[in-house]
């Protein structure tokens, strides 16, 4: 075989391999699937003709090395009238930390609800009837813990909460520590995985080891039951 032909074949193989990598990378990133309002509930009564809801992806993917993930948070007006000034909040709990939300500002630590670790506020001047607005969310997920996210939709001044999705968990019942990434499903409690693939309880510090499973479970249930924290906190203020 001539050296020219060998060079041509080798070049073709490199090109084919590079193309395969590109296809694989693209497919790995496109895993959000359809949006879902799972875990959502109307709170304060919205103005007549306004119906606000939110959507989160059914599935996200967490890089097992960097713990990075991204998702899309969407707010919709399914009513027949414009919303007026509102704001969407994106808040992280437990192992899920919200690092940034495109076009939104960070919520001060003193204004975060109990149990949350991060949050961003996204002001919206007006959401027309039948329209939606989506935000790119950059986050990290500690796969050694459970993780939740919360999307309240409020008046522009935060005095009323029309809708709140969550705190709803992302997680997997089948951890894959040796894979490049772990897919997590919305509405699924995460089964944490430790080094070497051994499942273990979430670790939050030395004192956590002293808590029996029942107490840890009760703490998580309390965090979930406090889902309407923001509306109550604003009314009391």
Q: Provide the residue-averaged pLDDT.
A: 78
Shape field = elongated
| Beta-strand share of residues | 35-45%
Count of extended strands: 13
Q: Radius of gyration, rounded?
A: 22 Å
N-to-C SSE string, H for helix and E for strand: HEEEEEEEEEEEEEHH
Structural class: alpha+beta
What does the largest sheet look like? 8 strands, antiparallel
- Oligomerization state: single chain
Given as residue ranges, the uncertain stretches (5+ residues, pLDDT < 50) are: 2-30, 196-227
Helix content: 10-25%
Number of helices: 3
Instruction: Measure the end-to-end span.
Output: 83 Å
Quick structural gist:
Helices cover 20% and strands 37% of the residues.
Task: Describe this entry's structure for a reader.
This protein is an alpha+beta fold. The protein has helices at residues 3-29, 213-225, 229-236, and strands at residues 35-36, 40-42, 52-57, 59-63, 68-77, 86-94, 96-101, 105-106, 116-124, 132-141, 147-155, 161-171, 181-186. The strands form two sheets. Strands 2, 4, 6, 8, 9, 11, 12 and 13 form an eight-stranded antiparallel sheet that branches. Strand 11 and strand 12 (161-171) form a beta hairpin. Mean pLDDT is 78; it is low at 2-30 and 196-227.
Supply the key terms:
eight-stranded antiparallel sheet; 37% strand; single chain; alpha+beta; disordered N terminus; 237 residues; 13 strands
């Amino acid at each position: 075989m001539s050296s020219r032909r060998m060079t041509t074949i080798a070049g073709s193989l490199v090109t084919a391999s590079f193309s395969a990598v590109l296809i694989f990378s693209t497919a790995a990133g496109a895993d959000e699937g359809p949006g879902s309002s799972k875990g959502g509930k109307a709170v304060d009564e919205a103005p007549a003709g306004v119906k606000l809801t939110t959507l989160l992806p059914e599935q996200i993917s967490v890089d097992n090395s960097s713990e990075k993930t991204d998702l899309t948070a969407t707010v919709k007006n399914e009513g027949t009238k414009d919303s007026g000034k509102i704001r969407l909040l994106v808040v992280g709990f437990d192992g899920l930390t919200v690092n940034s939300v495109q076009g939104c500002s960070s919520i001060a630590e003193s204004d975060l609800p109990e149990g949350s670790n991060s949050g961003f506020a996204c002001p919206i001047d007006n959401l027309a009837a039948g329209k939606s607005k989506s935000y790119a969310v950059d986050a990290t997920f500690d796969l050694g813990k459970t993780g939740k996210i919360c999307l309240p939709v409020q008046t522009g001044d935060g005095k009323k909460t029309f809708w709140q999705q969550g705190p709803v968990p992302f997680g997997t019942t089948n951890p894959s520590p040796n894979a490049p990434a772990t897919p997590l499903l919305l509405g699924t409690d995460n089964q944490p995985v430790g080094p070497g693939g051994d499942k273990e309880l979430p670790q939050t510090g030395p004192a956590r080891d002293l808590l029996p499973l029942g107490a840890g479970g009760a703490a998580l249930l309390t965090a979930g039951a406090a889902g309407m924290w923001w509306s109550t906190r604003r009314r009391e203020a």
